[in-house]
Amino acid sequence: MFSKIGFLASAEAGASPVIPKPAEIIVGFIAFGLLFLIIRARAVPRFEKAYKDRTEAIEGGLERAETAQREAAEALQMYKAQLADARGEAATLREAARAEGSVILEQMRATAQEEATRITASARASIEAERQVAFNSLLNEVGALATELASRIVGESLDDAARASRVVERFLADVEKSQ
After folding, report:
1. In contact, 167 and 158? CB cutoff 8 Å
2. For the chain, how far is it from start to end, CA to CA, in angstroms?
3. Global pTM exceeds 0.85
4. What pLDDT digit, counting tens, does each position of 45-95 carry?
5. Rounded to an integer, what distance in angstroms lies between the CA atom of residue 152 and that of residue 149?
């Protein structure tokens, strides 16, 4: 029995443990081929699909980010334009308010000037009327005094209205000449 074991050991001792037997190589190639085909048929499409989905997600995210950035830039430009329009409109409204204020102020001045002119005219008319009344009253009193004085000087009565009127008129004419 030992001789058989020795034979097997020597037969196996002649074969290199590093170099596989041709049957193992064929079985290994067949197993590798089957495994390669199974992986290629099942796993590779899944990896390809996952890679494609991830690429699309990244590209879609980039596109969405670019779109959002464009929209934000457009919104910023629109905001700036609206802000500029609002500032321009505010300036226009301020100028319009100033102009309207100037017009109102000028109207108030004109109204005040008209009122002052009317009051002045009314006061002048009133003063003129009072002066005329005072002048007529003074004229009557002076006439009466002149008639009385003339009566005393002349020594005759000037009760006659026509004669009294002539005396008063001569007296007033003399007063006017003396001034």
Report:
1. yes
2. 187
3. no
4. 999 999 999 998 888 888 888 999 999 999 999 999 999 999 999 999 999
5. 5
